[in-house]
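hey can u check if this looks right to u? its 154 residues, i copy pasted from the old doc so theres a chance i mangled smth
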Amino acid sequence: MKIELATLEDAERLWEVQKAAFYEYIEKYGHFEDNPYDMTFDRIKFNINYHLGKYYKIIKDDQIIGGVFGFLLDRDDMMKIAQFYLLPDYQAQHLGEEALKYVLDIHQEIKVWVVDTIYQETLNIHFYEKLGFEIVDVEAVDEDLSFATLIYKR
């Protein structure tokens, strides 16, 4: 597996992979605000070019199998992971852990990382906690859907 900065030439494949990765949440929770499944192609291109962000493609066997997009928040040492995804066939193989560790490691200048994930998705919560993230907030959208905000500090 390798991780590289994404380019506009990668946008269509990243969009397809992101839709495939987040489709299961549409089936479970329906369409909800800011679901990456509903992100437009133009938004993917914007994120790739965003001057305060970094968009990485995750590659295995010469194919893009996932992506990580983060952007600076209120200060130069705080980054939000806005999208992090792998194709379903590549999940639960420690590839996500390897990818996120790599991104955290190459950005030593970032002291605080923030991510939101669906609180009911206990595997996602466990994934981030295993990497050192801690839940700092849980916000209910409705009775079946809540989002947890997790923070990792160096």
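The mean pLDDT is 95.
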